[in-house]
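Thread amino acids onto this structure.
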């Protein structure tokens, strides 16, 4: 398992790179005649995500969910819907995953 500090830093860097990729894609749209999704299929990103998931034993793919589908609520509920977790910050996601989710 990796430390909370390293996990949070990695997620922050992924988010920063995603924003940069979006900006580059928008700039390319201005000079091209189609939609550009810059950064899609990035092997470095895929490798980092693979290592993060393995290091955290993320069996249910919460990390990918958090990065792509969690916003803006970042809310997880128990199967019987009696408990709710708000995971807006990377450290909350870390705590959730390490507690067994």
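Threaded sequence (101 positions):
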């Amino acid at each position: 398992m990796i430390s909370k500090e390293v996990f949070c830093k990695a997620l922050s860097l992924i988010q920063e790179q995603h924003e940069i990729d979006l900006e580059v894609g928008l700039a390319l749209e201005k000079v091209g005649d189609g939609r550009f999704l810059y950064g899609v299929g990035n092997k470095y990103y895929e490798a980092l995500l693979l290592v993060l998931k393995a290091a955290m034993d993320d069996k249910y793919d919460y990390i990918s969910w958090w990065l792509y589908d969690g916003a803006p609520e970042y809310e997880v509920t128990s199967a019987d819907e009696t408990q709710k977790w708000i995971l807006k910050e990377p450290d909350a996601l870390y705590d959730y995953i390490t507690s067994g989710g």
